[in-house]
């Protein structure tokens, strides 16, 4: 067998093969034998028809089946001998076959892209951060008080700390009720931020039995049209907020705190933890954005399409009954997510290359440190946990990712960026 491999780009290969008949004779004979056993010939039972009849009826089909098998077998032989691992199906470009003489063919296929790292040290990478504010803590305390509040029947709504129950009727511009446009026992929470301000103002100072008419201008109306409403007030209730005493604070914090200051710290830690997690994701995205900007590589179409198919499959697995909505457009979805798929694949290859070059590995010390931390966290036996950790690929990959990220931090300039103050950047030199 003569062969020639041409590199068309970093991932696309073209293979040309010339094979003598003696190299493929067995494949041809096996193909004929399969037709002898399985082909149907009128007047004969399956597998009993003579060879000349089979060849007369199925000669073209035999040749096509043989060529397909021979091409796949010869290509596989070449791949095995040369340690090549295609990631796509073979694309047949040309085939020349003379029965009993030779088989020449040319195919294209894709492999994992080859590339050289250009730069991954001495770069500038932004690390965003957000610090929780006192205002956010106070807002959360108010939300908690709101959730723990109770309602007391009142005579009159003195301010916006009241809930009004009313029969609401829509009117035409002349004040005549519109048929089918009435809502009975509608509840209006006057401190709800979604309430139109004209409605809020009109209902303050109302009492049970009052009729309050409100005209909502077109520019303030959700529909963009002028609306006239009549509110017949049937109930007025005052929102009574609880005192943030020790009992309530313990309830909110699950007995972790008992003072107002402790509650504020508790809330601050929760909000800050959320921000930190979000910023960690953003930082990792920034790392790979910078690395992709400085290291060029092409991604095979096959890999892109496979990645997008995996995204769709993952999306399906998170749907009720694991079935996509009837109006789901896979073509549109792939188009919208194509750039994201390419970015993630580039990031994956660059990360793997850096890990390989820098010999970043996870060892027993890393496992032991993780086991120590997690055993204290969950109150588990350290040795038993150690055995589980070593057998978990997810944990291993997580630890490897952390070591990779630490390597990037130590070998590049990390610029901390306060997202609340876009112009306030502080450089932290870590190289």
Helix-strand blueprint:
Elements: E1 2-7, E2 12-20, H1 21-38, H2 51-82, E3 91-98, E4 102-110, E5 124-129, H3 134-147, E6 150-153, E7 162-171, E8 177-189, H4 197-203, E9 211-216, E10 227-240, H5 246-253, H6 260-294, H7 301-317, H8 330-357, H9 364-378, H10 382-391, H11 393-410, E11 413-418, E12 425-428
Parallel strand pairs: 5-11
Antiparallel strand pairs: 1-2, 2-4, 3-4, 6-10, 7-8, 7-10, 9-10, 11-12
Index terms:
Trigger factor, domain 2, 11 helices, five-stranded antiparallel β-sheet, 22% strand, 431 residues, 47% helix
Structure explained in plain terms:
This protein is α+β, with helices and mostly antiparallel strands. It has three domains: 2-110, 2-Layer Sandwich (Alpha-Beta Plaits); 150-240, Transcription elongation factor, GreA/GreB, C-terminal domain (Chitinase A, domain 3), CATH 3.10.50.30; 253-428, Trigger factor, C-terminal domain (Trigger factor, domain 2, Orthogonal Bundle), CATH 1.10.3120.10. Helix content is 47%, strand content 22%. It contains eleven helices and twelve strands. It has helices at residues 21-38, 51-82, 134-147, 197-203, 246-253, 260-294, 301-317, 330-357, 364-378, 382-391, 393-410, and strands spanning 2-7, 12-20, 91-98, 102-110, 124-129, 150-153, 162-171, 177-189, 211-216, 227-240, 413-418, 425-428. The strands form three sheets. Strands 6, 7, 8, 9 and 10 form a five-stranded antiparallel beta sheet that branches. Strands 1-2-4-3 form a four-stranded antiparallel beta sheet. It is elongated and about 105 Å long.
């Amino acid at each position: 067998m003569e062969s020639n491999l041409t590199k068309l780009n970093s991932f696309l290969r073209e293979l040309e093969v010339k094979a003598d008949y003696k190299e493929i004779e067995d494949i041809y004979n096996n193909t004929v034998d399969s037709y002898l056993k399985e082909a149907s010939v009128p007047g004969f039972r399956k597998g009993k028809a003579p060879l000349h009849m089979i060849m007369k009826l199925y000669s073209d089909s035999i040749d096509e089946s043989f060529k397909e098998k021979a091409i796949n077998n010869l290509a596989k032989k070449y791949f095995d001998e040369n340690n090549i691992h295609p990631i796509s199906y073979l694309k047949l470009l040309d085939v020349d076959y003379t029965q009993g003489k030779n088989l020449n063919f040319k195919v294209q296929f894709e492999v994992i892209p080859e590339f050289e790292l250009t730069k991954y040290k001495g770069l500038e990478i932004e690390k965003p951060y957000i610090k929780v504010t006192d205002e956010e803590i106070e807002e959360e305390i108010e939300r908690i008080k709101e959730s723990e509040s109770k309602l007391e029947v009142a005579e009159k709504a003195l301010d916006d700390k009241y809930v009004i129950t009313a029969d609401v009727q829509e009117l035409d511009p002349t004040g005549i009720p519109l048929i089918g446009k009435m809502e009975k026992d509608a509840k209006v929470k006057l401190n709800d931020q979604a309430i139109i301000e004209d409605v809020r103002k009109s209902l303050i100072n109302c009492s049970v039995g009052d009729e309050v008419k409100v005209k909502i201008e077109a520019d303030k109306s959700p529909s963009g049209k002028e609306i006239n409403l009549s509110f017949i007030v049937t109930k007025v209730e005052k929102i009574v907020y609880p005192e943030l005493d020790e009992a309530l604070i313990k309830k909110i914090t699950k007995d972790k705190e008992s003072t107002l200051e402790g509650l504020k710290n508790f809330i601050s830690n929760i909000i800050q933890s959320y921000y930190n997690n979000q910023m960690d994701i953003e930082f990792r995205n920034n790392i790979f954005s910078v690395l992709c900007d400085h290291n060029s590589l092409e991604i095979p179409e096959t890999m892109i399409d496979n990645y997008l198919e995996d995204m769709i499959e993952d999306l399906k697995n998170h749907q009720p009954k694991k079935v996509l909505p009837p109006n789901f457009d896979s073509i549109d979805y792939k188009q919208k997510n194509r750039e994201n798929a390419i970015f993630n694949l580039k990031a994956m290859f660059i990360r793997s290359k850096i890990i390989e070059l820098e010999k970043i590995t996870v060892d027993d010390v890393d496992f032991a440190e993780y086991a120590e931390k997690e055993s204290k966290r969950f109150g588990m036996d350290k040795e038993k946990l150690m055995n589980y950790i070593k057998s978990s690929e997810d944990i291993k990959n997580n630890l490897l990712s952390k070591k990779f990220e630490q390597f990037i931090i130590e070998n590049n300039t990390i610029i901390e960026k306060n997202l609340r103050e876009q112009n306030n950047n502080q450089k932290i030199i870590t190289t």
